[in-house]
Amino acid sequence: MTDAHSNRKNEHLSLATKFWRDDQKPVVGASFDDVRWVPGPLNSRSVETANTQTSLLGESFEWPFYIEAMTGGSESTKKVNEQLATVAEMTGIAMAVGSQSVALKDPDQADSFKIVREKHPNGFLIANLGADHPIENVKKAVEMIDANAIEIHVNVGQELSMAEGDRSFNWLDNLKHIIEESPVPVIIKEVGFGMGVSELRQLAELQPAAINIGGGNGTSFYQIEQARDRKNEVPLDLSSFGLSTVESLLAAQKADIDVPIIATGGIESAKDVTTALMLGASAASSAGYFLSVLMQDGQDALEQIIRTWQQQLPKYMTLLGASDLSQLPHAPRLYSGDLMNTIDQL
Ligand SMILES: Cc1cc2nc3c(=O)[nH]c(=O)nc-3n(C[C@H](O)[C@H](O)[C@H](O)COP(=O)(O)O)c2cc1C
């Protein structure tokens, strides 16, 4: 069972890399290109003084983006976590690990997660578990990497896509309990199907430290599970299920909730990060794109990409007349006709 679990982690990694490399990610709705930036008033501003800091999870971060949850749980994924954490350390950004449930079942796999704290000793690290785990497991996952926060993923679409996935979901009471009892701030996170207005309002009532809307147009676990699943006798067609990251961010605006939003799903440039912040996110994160750079071009290339984003972000802020991130949601923009239609229907 545990071997199968580790094997699944390896398959996720190689298939996600393949779909990003071949640019085969499915498109579910409006993309970042559906939001155009419009010149605003010529107020005084400068790249040098543009302040990229964001406050979230009780912490102040120098950069409003981080490496999102991907992996751990096998020998080869340990190497990937080691490289990701080294890059996070060198560039001063936060990092999340993949689901630690495999290491709770098989303690031999814990090293593949602990390596992240070793390589990023003073960094902000985010633990990761599914929403069905008891609070005892949450505490163990946090302790395993001395985490500063934990993501609890809700992934009905992914579970139903898998032959071996869960079939019933009674998560709300457990999520409430985890949020109340967790030793660190809790982020509730989707993994690629996005979140709509009603779900966001329901989750906000639980008062998590943040919600990651986890939208589409990036890594698709529906696509990945379909590709790896040779035994699924009842495959589902989820090609028209879900909201993109841009749509989910607009849904969060409509939901008018008092919980910080993190944007993940298809983020592959500093421009995407900027657009996500314009649409109300407090931070953004990237998984598949960073992974594909690492796997294809290596650790130095990933470090270089992140440093480039760190140079571009203050320039984009200056272009948009923002001297700090709180001004980005006020930057003028144009939405495409399709996106306007989506906003009306949300
Ligand atoms: C190889 C791989 C493994 C992942 N494993 C996890 C996981 O264990 N837990 C989780 O919450 N999200 C996991 N994700 C989802 C990402 O954290 C992210 O939500 C999703 O990939 C969308 O972002 P992207 O389009 O930038 O990849 C994984 C993503 C990838 C690419």
From TrEMBL:
<comment type="similarity">
    <text>Belongs to the IPP isomerase type 2 family.</text>
</comment>
<feature type="domain" description="FMN-dependent dehydrogenase">
    <location>
        <begin position="163"/>
        <end position="329"/>
    </location>
</feature>
<feature type="binding site">
    <location>
        <position position="99"/>
    </location>
    <ligand>
        <name>FMN</name>
    </ligand>
</feature>
<feature type="binding site">
    <location>
        <position position="159"/>
    </location>
    <ligand>
        <name>Mg(2+)</name>
    </ligand>
</feature>
<keyword id="KW-0963">Cytoplasm</keyword>
<keyword id="KW-0413">Isomerase</keyword>
<keyword id="KW-0288">FMN</keyword>
<dbReference type="InterPro" id="IPR000262">
    <property type="entry name" value="FMN-dep_DH"/>
</dbReference>
<dbReference type="Pfam" id="PF01070">
    <property type="entry name" value="FMN_dh"/>
</dbReference>
<feature type="binding site">
    <location>
        <position position="219"/>
    </location>
    <ligand>
        <name>FMN</name>
    </ligand>
</feature>
<feature type="binding site">
    <location>
        <position position="128"/>
    </location>
    <ligand>
        <name>FMN</name>
    </ligand>
</feature>
<keyword id="KW-0414">Isoprene biosynthesis</keyword>
<feature type="binding site">
    <location>
        <begin position="287"/>
        <end position="288"/>
    </location>
    <ligand>
        <name>FMN</name>
    </ligand>
</feature>
<feature type="binding site">
    <location>
        <position position="158"/>
    </location>
    <ligand>
        <name>substrate</name>
    </ligand>
</feature>
<protein>
    <recommendedName>
        <fullName>Isopentenyl-diphosphate delta-isomerase</fullName>
        <ecNumber>5.3.3.2</ecNumber>
    </recommendedName>
</protein>
<comment type="function">
    <text>Involved in the biosynthesis of isoprenoids. Catalyzes the 1,3-allylic rearrangement of the homoallylic substrate isopentenyl (IPP) to its allylic isomer, dimethylallyl diphosphate (DMAPP).</text>
</comment>
<feature type="binding site">
    <location>
        <begin position="8"/>
        <end position="9"/>
    </location>
    <ligand>
        <name>substrate</name>
    </ligand>
</feature>
<dbReference type="InterPro" id="IPR011179">
    <property type="entry name" value="IPdP_isomerase"/>
</dbReference>
<keyword id="KW-0460">Magnesium</keyword>
<feature type="binding site">
    <location>
        <position position="189"/>
    </location>
    <ligand>
        <name>FMN</name>
    </ligand>
</feature>
<keyword id="KW-0285">Flavoprotein</keyword>
<keyword id="KW-0479">Metal-binding</keyword>
<comment type="subunit">
    <text>Homooctamer. Dimer of tetramers.</text>
</comment>
<dbReference type="GO" id="GO:0004452">
    <property type="term" value="F:isopentenyl-diphosphate delta-isomerase activity"/>
</dbReference>
<keyword id="KW-0521">NADP</keyword>
<dbReference type="InterPro" id="IPR013785">
    <property type="entry name" value="Aldolase_TIM"/>
</dbReference>
<feature type="binding site">
    <location>
        <begin position="69"/>
        <end position="71"/>
    </location>
    <ligand>
        <name>FMN</name>
    </ligand>
</feature>
